[in-house]
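Notes from the pairing session

We agreed to fold both candidates in a single pass and log them together. This is the raw record for the first candidate, unedited. Please don't reformat it; downstream parsing expects exactly this layout.

Candidate A
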Amino acid sequence: MSSLFEKVRIGNIDLKNRIGMAPMTRSRALPDGTPSDLVAEYYGQRASVGLIISEGTQPSDDGQGYTKTPGIYTENHIKGWKKVTSKVHSEGGHIFVQLMHVGRVSHPDNTPHHRQAVAPSAIAPGVEIFTAEGIKEIPTPRELSELEIKDVIHEFRLAARSAIEAGADGVEIHGANGYLIQQFLSENSNHRQDAYGGTIEGRSRFAIEVAKAVVDEIGAERTGIRFSPQGTLQGIDEGENSLEM
């Protein structure tokens, strides 16, 4: 504990202390996913920590799972996040934007396009989700094609670029808590038999390619990734073989 308030260097930034703020969904974005002025105020109030990891931020319409979560894929989103990062920096803090594609953990009522959610395989998580009309069962998602998977990887790349353009110090790729990346990693949510499924290597491919794309775009020093090994949120079961990863 004696070093908690000492400076530390992570990547290419110097943090004023070793305290980090974990990402927490706030649902305070505008209907189009633009962070509101309240979001800037909220993070500015917490900029005394060394590093803030923002709430999960979707890289596309398909990536949204919950109501009023922020996006980072339009010009309005970038303008909204600029207010957030400017406020945090003015208070002496640093902030990474967490890039979160929820995959199957969504409901058409919660997305801008009201379409069926996408996932590695057409397998429902067997859990409920909150919508503007109350709690509803999450419907079965649509399986992504290999070509669509490449498109999603590109969405992560563009979202990372947009986050840096908006003034973020870096990004954290959300590979945990039962969302899209962990859905690819897990045996019970990924029944694919192509390059993105089957073996441990195949199920890991999506996470690796997302990370490579983001690093290629903004640099390894500004890229983090979060995992939750053997986590069971959102109906996930990685399987015993995942322990060998």
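Candidate B (folded immediately after A)
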Amino acid sequence: MTETVIKKSIYQREEPEGFLETLGVRYYRFLAKKAGTSELHNVSIDDLQPDATLQALSTNITAFAAVIAFAIGALTTFVTIWIEWTFQASMTTAAYYLLYGSVLIVMLTVEMTVLFWLGLKIVYSLACLTGHNQATKDFCLPGDDAVPNILARAALEVPDPIIRYLGIDPLKHLSKSKLFLVTLLYKAKVILSSLGVKFLLVRFFGKGDIRLTFSWVAIPITGLWDAFTLYKVAREARLRLFGNKLAEHIAMNVITDDVIAQLSLKAREGSVRAVAVMMVLAQHYHPNMLVLLHRLCSTFEIDETKEYDNWEDFLALLDEVAEHERYFLLDLLCVSAAFDGHLSRLERYHLPEAFKELTEEYMQRAEKLKNMLLNGQLHAAKDLCELDFNAG
């Protein structure tokens, strides 16, 4: 009796590009074409401006966008409150609610449209700082993904797609009920956040004239909410841009042919496992991690029948490789942990099992690298990403 083994595809995207992502990518490419940068190639980290300049410019771009977001949130809320203040007492109930509902929908549409447009302008401006302003396909990303896609998702707060890369399942330790709740809360945040803030503040502050008086409080609160939303968009865009640039540097300039030649077959397998298990512990297929994983998979011979995202198998492998190879794998594990800008509860719990006596040193390095990525200290972060076969 013969057994048929079905070979899995290394990269599988379970859902097609959505409408908002498609729209965002098209606008991003339009901006790149308009600026004449659509055919430019990436530049290296060493060719970028100093960290102080990158930080200052990215902070100014974010602050300017937050001010505009505050203004649009406050203005659209002012219009709805003015309608209520002016017409509620003089119109019939049916006519008033028809007018109020229509104005509320129009203002919400205007608000969301401007915020989406502003988000895309932010990420493109930040991309220009890091040399990502071209619109060509990024060879470091797998499948049909590209820098315009990952930035469009950040700008429009669209979740990253569920994909299968080498059979790795980042959600394997997340229960279906919790996953459903997370998805539900995310969609509720995106769809109902601005509308909910307006509705709750406008409708439930007191009664009668007191309620009308207190409803004006919704203006600055909605403005602050929109400003905070744009701040988060800029923060995630910075993380993806700086992290992508750093991952690209590691993939092309750190994991060189000379470094690869020093790795045994077991250590090469461990390199893939180091990034794969971090995806599981982070419970996210962050694009920055995919760059590293794609580079490793395209360089090493991959056995697609193996379960690369098993934490226990990775720990066992660390005891099987030579000491210098173990330090290389721990360096790679540490760097991968910082690449999504967050150290999850699972990461903080399990990483000491791999770092052992070097736990404090590696955890401090991961925290420092994470903060540098979030703050735009790209040149300083590059120095923390050496994979030099030495401890720590």
